[in-house]
Write a structure and sequence with these properties.
254 residues, mainly alpha, 2 domains, two-stranded antiparallel ribbon, 2 strands, 69% helix
Length: 254
C-alpha cells in the first residue's frame, strides 16, 4: 500500500455536530463578554492571554504544522488582539461595549465564513486593525520596529487575502506587498503624521491595499471592465492626492 504523503497545510478542525458544536457556539458568545469584563477591571494582559489561549486548536497537531496553522490564523489573531486593545484604549463604557459587539460579530459571523468575499474582508480588516494598533500603541518606538511590524502585518494580511484564490504566486505577491508597505513605513516614519488618532501611513496603505484588492477580486471573477478599472484607479489617486497635498510636511503632527 503506497505511503500517504503529508500535506503542506493542515486544516484546523472545528466542531460541527452535537454537544461539541453547542459548546463551541456558547464559548464564542461568552468570550467577548469575558474579555469585556477583564478590560473593565483593568486585566488587559490577561484578556490578551485569554484570546491567544482560545486559539489552542492551532497546536492540536504535530509541531511541524504549527507555523502553517499560525499563518492561517494570523488574521483572526490580529483582529482579536486589536479589538482588545481598542477596548482598553478608552475608559468610556459605551465605546468598550461597541468594540465588544464588533468582536462578537467577528467571532460568530465573519470569521467562520470561507467564501471569497468574506475572506477578502477578513484580510482587509486584519491589515487595518493590525496597523492601527501598531501605530497607535507603538508609534513612538524605533523606526526599525515600525518597519518590521508594518512588513509583518501587510505580509500576513496579503497571504490571508490570497488563500481563497487559485493564485500560484501567493508567497511572491505577499512579499511584494509587504516590501512596499515596509518601504513606505521607512519613508513616512520620519514624519509619522496623524489625523487625530489615525496615522497617515494607514490611510495610504488602506487606500492602495483596498483598491488593489478590489481590482484583483473583480478580475478573478471576470467582472473587471475597463470603465470600472479607471473609476477605481481614479478614486485611489484622488484620495492619495488629497492626503499628500493637505498634509503638513514640516514635521508637525496634525
Amino acid at each position: 500500500m503506497p505511503r500517504r504523503l503529508p500535506t503542506k497545510f493542515t486544516k484546523i478542525v472545528k466542531p460541527t455536530r452535537g454537544f461539541a458544536h453547542f459548546r463551541h457556539i456558547v464559548a464564542m458568545f461568552l468570550l467577548p463578554l469575558i474579555i469585556y469584563i477583564l478590560v473593565r477591571i483593568d486585566f488587559v494582559s490577561l484578556a490578551i492571554v485569554l484570546v491567544l489561549l482560545s486559539k489552542w486548536r492551532m497546536f492540536a497537531v504535530r509541531p511541524r504544522y504549527w507555523p502553517a496553522n499560525l499563518i492561517a490564523s494570523s488574521a483572526d489573531i490580529l483582529v482579536s488582539v486589536a479589538l482588545v486593545l481598542f477596548m482598553a484604549n478608552t475608559s468610556i463604557q459605551w465605546w468598550q461595549l461597541f468594540w465588544t459587539t464588533i468582536y462578537g460579530i467577528w467571532l460568530i459571523w465573519l470569521k467562520p465564513r470561507s467564501d471569497v468575499l468574506s475572506v477578502s474582508i477578513q484580510a482587509m480588516l486584519a491589515q487595518l486593525a493590525g496597523l492601527a494598533v501598531l501605530y497607535l500603541k507603538f508609534g513612538d518606538t524605533s523606526l526599525v520596529a515600525l518597519v518590521a511590524g508594518t512588513w509583518l502585518v501587510a505580509d500576513l494580511a496579503a497571504r490571508h487575502f490570497l488563500t481563497s484564490f487559485e493564485e500560484p504566486h501567493t508567497a511572491l505577491l505577499a512579499h511584494v506587498w509587504a516590501y512596499f508597505a515596509a518601504g513606505l513605513a521607512f519613508v513616512l516614519g520620519h514624519w509619522l503624521l496623524f489625523y487625530g488618532t489615525v496615522a497617515q501611513i494607514i490611510v495610504i496603505l488602506t487606500t492602495v491595499g483596498y483598491g488593489l484588492g478590489a481590482l484583483y477580486y473583480l478580475d478573478s471573477h471576470e467582472r473587471l471592465t475597463a470603465l470600472l478599472q479607471r473609476q477605481l484607479l481614479a478614486i485611489m489617486f484622488a484620495i492619495l492626492l488629497i492626503v499628500v497635498v493637505l498634509s503638513d510636511w514640516t514635521g508637525v503632527t496634525v
